[in-house]
Amino acid sequence: MTGHQASAQGAAKRYEVRSNFFAPPAQFDGCFTSFYQAIIDVDDGGVLHDHLQPEWANLRFFSGSVPVSQVPGKPELRDARFTATGPSTLPVRFELGTCRMWGIGILPLGWSRLLDTNASDVVNIICDGAAHPAFKKFAPMQEVLCDDSVPDQQQFDYIVEFMNAAMRPNRDEDKIVRVHRAMVDSKLTSVADFADLSGMSVRTLERLCHRYFGFSPKLLMRRQRFMRSLTDFLLHDGKKWTEVMDDHYHDQAQFTREFHEFMTMNPSDYAALDHPVLSAFIRARAKIWGSPAQTLDKPG
Fold first, then answer.
1. What is the per-residue pLDDT for 287?
2. Fewer CB atoms < 10 Å away: N or C end of the chain?
3. Which pLDDT tens digit goes with each residue over 98-154?
4. Using CB atoms within 10 A of its CB, is residue 27 exposed (0-12), middle (13-18) or buried (19+)?
5. pTM for this structure?
6. Pick the CATH number of 3-166 from 1.10.3720.10, 3.90.660.10, 3.40.50.10860, 2.60.120.10
7. pLDDT tens across 7-20, in order?
8. Which residue ranges does the record assign to the HTH araC/xylS-type domain (predicted)?
9. What are the extents of the domains in the chain?
10. Comparing C-alpha atoms, which of 174, 178, 194 is closest to residue 186?
């Protein structure tokens, strides 16, 4: 197991967030963002509040405190040691105390090999993974990954073994990789160009995107543009939104509208919030993994 660790502390050590990133083995190339751990220590039984940004599907397994989580406009999720999210274009608000979490980020290629459900059927949800039809196949992982007495190496080996057994080839794999590679190109400006770079018709692109990526090509392009801007802001303290806006935004008004659509709040309101978990995680990920967010990862 090759892991890379980073940590961040709050004022007066009220809390500490440590992140460990583990490279999936070569047979999983392009299937996962990473296998990762977050270890959160909060003084005096307190909790941290933060918002997950739009991302790919994730499986998360908790020992210690479990989160209270909510997608805007949907019921809160409580008391779940295994939480699952589909691809998202909305934030997930959460509060969380002292805990250890294993996370598995699933890229579109991994989705094609692991899940039979259309990605578009489970977008913008957070659920008890053990109870949801799309994700309950991963519920047995709780026994190992939610047990603090199991050593990290053994847990990592278990993830690899479980995913190896669950994988099966998909006839669309080459197309998925081409779409993913085109999608992360920062020069992309139109659906027609997206289709050309992917080497397929717009209609085929639409079908593949809904099946394995969760959203339409146009929305995926907008999410990429937004995430480039948001991560730049979180990586650079003191920068103004006008300094981190992606070049493809026409003006600040367009950026503000899209920020509200993706995060359900205005940029100024978001900037005024503390981001104790996400800021630490994004900085560690950028430094160690070379990419600050899952949505910006390349397909292999």
1. 85
2. C
3. 999 999 999 999 999 999 999 999 999 999 999 999 999 999 999 999 999 999 999
4. exposed
5. 0.94
6. 2.60.120.10
7. 556 554 589 999 98
8. 174-273
9. 3-166, 173-296
10. 194
pLDDT in tens, 10-67: 554 589 999 989 989 999 999 999 899 999 999 998 999 999 999 999 999 999 999 9
How many angstroms separate the first and last alpha carbons of the chain? 19
Which amino acid makes up residue 167?
Answer: M
Distances (CA, A) of 280 to 5, 6, 120, 131, 222: 12, 8, 30, 31, 25
Residue 212 neighbours by CB distance under 10 Å: 26
Full DSSP string of the chain: --EEEEEEE-GGGSEEEEEEEEPPPGGGTTTEEEEEEEEEEEGGG--EEEEEPS-SEEEEEEEES--EEE-TTS--B-S-SEEEE---SS-EEEEE-SEEEEEEEE-HHHHHHH--S-GGGGTT-EEETTTSTTTGGGGGGHHHHT-TTS-HHHHHHHHHHHHHHH----TTHHHHHHHHHHHT-TT---HHHHHHHHTS-HHHHHHHIIIIISS-HHHHHHHHHHHHHHHHHHHSTT--HHHHS-TT-SSHHHHHHHHHHHHSS-HHHHHHS--TTHHHHHHHHHHHHS-SSGGG----
